[in-house]
Design brief:
This protein is an all-alpha fold. The chain contains four helices and no strands.
């Protein structure tokens, strides 16, 4: 309970100044729905979709979660912003890969 309150407090402070995209993934409990919802409220619509997609694919509750902190491109995914950028890069590459295969 105390940890959850500390995390929510840090998210509140982020809302007051620091960009939530700069928040380190290892500093938040991504398995806590309230924390994820608070992060989502601080993101724009496109970023929220990208972050949600990241959690579905790579989050702690994902069947694909393997504990690795690197994307398939070798870049460390350390912050919420990194996770968003990874999903944007991945979703841009999918249509290209499908076009090449077709």
């Amino acid at each position: 309970m105390l940890t959850r309150m500390a995390i929510l407090f840090s998210l509140f402070l982020t809302a007051c100044g620091q960009d939530v995209r700069d928040l380190r993934l290892d500093e938040v409990d991504l398995s806590d729905r309230a924390v994820v919802q608070q992060i989502g409220r601080q993101l724009g619509p496109a970023d929220k979709v990208a972050f949600t997609t990241y959690l579905v694919v790579h989050g702690p509750a994902s069947l694909r979660h393997c504990g690795h902190k690197r994307s398939g491109h070798g870049k460390e995914v350390a912050t919420i912003g990194d996770a968003i950028e990874l999903m944007r890069l991945t979703t841009r590459q999918i249509p290209r890969a499908v076009a090449k295969a077709g």
